[in-house]
């Protein structure tokens, strides 16, 4: 058996001898995590757009409104000028004149009847319309980072 002195202290840098009445200082290590980001190109996207003009023919319904004017002779004396009136979708406008007799009176000479008339027909319209198509091509550079 060897009788070695166990009171020897190992060689530690900046080590101070242990004294029983002094506080013991033990150095601690703390790690800090630093998170950072960097941009890595993982691929490219190519977007191309093409314009096309397509001729189209379309059957459409057209409406045309006409008015029929009908003059009706009345030749009756009235006390005052009749107002414009509407009967069954027809606008009626009174036409008067003054007539000299022994006294002056109003005579309803005629009425003008205005009747709207709507006709419908089909027409073929030929026109060119614009159409666009988009093509998307994705290329990867070989990295698997998403």
From TrEMBL:
InterPro entries according to UniProt: DUF2382 (IPR019060)
Domain DUF2382: start-end pairs: 26-136
Pfam families for the chain: DUF2382
Protein's name according to its UniProt entry: DUF2382 domain-containing protein
UniProt organism field: Dyadobacter sediminis
Source organism phylogeny: Bacteria, Pseudomonadati, Bacteroidota, Cytophagia, Cytophagales
């Amino acid at each position: 058996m060897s009788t070695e002195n166990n009171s020897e202290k190992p060689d530690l840098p900046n080590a101070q001898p242990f004294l029983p009445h002094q506080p013991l200082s033990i150095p601690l290590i703390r790690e800090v995590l630093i998170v950072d980001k960097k941009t890595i190109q993982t691929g490219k996207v190519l977007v191309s757009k093409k314009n096309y003009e397509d001729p189209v023919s379309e059957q459409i319904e057209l409406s045309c409104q006409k008015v029929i004017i009908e003059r009706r002779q009345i030749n009756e004396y009235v006390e005052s000028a009749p107002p414009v009136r509407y009967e069954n979708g027809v606008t009626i406008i009174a036409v008067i004149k003054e007539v000299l007799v022994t006294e002056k009176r109003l005579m309803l000479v005629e009425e003008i009847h205005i009747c709207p008339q709507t006709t419908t027909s089909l027409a073929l319209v030929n026109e060119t319309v614009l159409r666009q198509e988009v093509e998307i091509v994705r290329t990867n550079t070989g990295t698997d980072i998403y």
